[in-house]
Specification:
binds zinc ion; alpha+beta; two-stranded antiparallel sheet; 6 helices
Amino acid sequence: MDLKLIGERQRSDYAARRLAAFATHCRKSGLAVTPQRLAIIRVLLATPEHPTAEAVYEIVRQEHPHISLATVHRTLDTLCEIGEAHKVTPLHDSARYDGNVAAHHHVVCVRCRRIADVELPDADRVLHRRATIGEFRVIGTSVEFLALCKNCQAEAKQNHE
Ligand SMILES: [Zn+2]
Ligand SMILES: [Zn+2]
């Protein structure tokens, strides 16, 4: 199977397309395009980190010092509701936010909880979107690979020496 991380270049092209369409999509969803909403979607699209609400807050408040953590939480929920972001909970941990709403999969470090986006074109062809499983109709597939990132591999090795 062809397993590969979604690269920086591919991600920034995607982010540029999403940002260009953001204002129109907000208005269509009956949402005003506020500077805070723009700042938050920018952070989500700029980072591959799948940040927590707290991490988004730390970045956004450098430009918007009066924004509250509650506003960031609320805005992230709103962005999820209109399909501009997804909430992911790797290893059933605290919520992390994903600006990549195109179909993709994740590899998660079980030690530091780092998440990266993965493309699985071969699997996506096999896991047909219109399949049914018993009484369930499949609407999508999300694979989570459990892994150790480069840093954690090194630390795990050190601890065993
Ligand atoms: Zn790690
Ligand atoms: Zn993702």
